[in-house]
Amino acid sequence: MEKKFKVYIYPDGDPNTFYQTPRKLTGKYSSEGYFFQNIRESRFRTDDPAQADLFFIPISCHKMRGKGTSYENMTIIVQNYVESLISKYPYWNRTLGADHFFVTCHDVGVRATEGVSLLVKNSIRVVCSPSYDVGFIPHKDVALPQVLQPFALPAGGNDAENRTTLAFWAGHRNSKIRVILARVWENDTELDIANNRISRATGHLVYQKKFYRTKFCICPGGSQVNSARIADSIHYGCIPVILSNYYDLPFNDILDWQKFSVILKENDVYRLKQILKDISNPEFVALNRNLFQVQKHFQWNSPPIKYDAFHMVMYDLWLRHHVIKY
What we know:
Order of helices and strands: EHEEHHEHHEEEHEHEHEEHHH
Structural class: alpha/beta
Number of helices: 11
Strand content: 5-15%
Helix content: 25-40%
Largest sheet: 6 strands, parallel
Radius of gyration: 20 Å
Number of strands: 11
């Protein structure tokens, strides 16, 4: 793949406004920025569209956030941009966009593009909120891991014997499942479930340090189906417990999530403690060991490093390229 797979990046777009400029490489939407930067500095990029297997539409809506642009106007801007590429270049019309893709991690970008039907239906969407109940198409689109970088503390893992707390969660109650999780379990003596975010006044990096001591970290969906807490859990060596419906997990056609996580439906929240206690110690040790092995796949680097998050996304795109029919 690395030697033959090539991507052409459309050169059009004003770098001072909406396109081309990556997001900042920090914060919970940094995955988008890292991909923009990585693709430009990688061997996958080609300046010759005749060699391209896929075409990257460099839409990045992050600058629209601070300009007070409405979602309706964002959609118009994106649509006008895509239509300008279609009229200027012959490549879209050869496949009706099936060999084109765009990347967005922020929900602003998702909402700005979902109104452009020819983009959403035809091209490959690489998004951080891959909820297949609202238009995400697993065999066509790609789930982008939402990674909060830089991490506050070094990686953990391969340390099952040091983890004494059964489960942990703290965060905003900005979804129904989070409200239920807090209401049912916040007073439990075996589960460390907070009713809200942990205040910084309680101490330095208290939230992050809890990941080191915990066996299972609960990852319920928030305002979107995804959560940066999943990548946090993987980084700190805490088995992620996916508590979300309709979530097409990142790289799930490459990685076997059952070997390093616990995947539950939202209705399982009422049996959460018993489900986790039923996992035997040998099973937990195996999960912990496997989690340590996949950490590198959920880490962004600049320049990119083999097997990191960028290469995993590119491999997913390479797989999609081989099933494109036109």
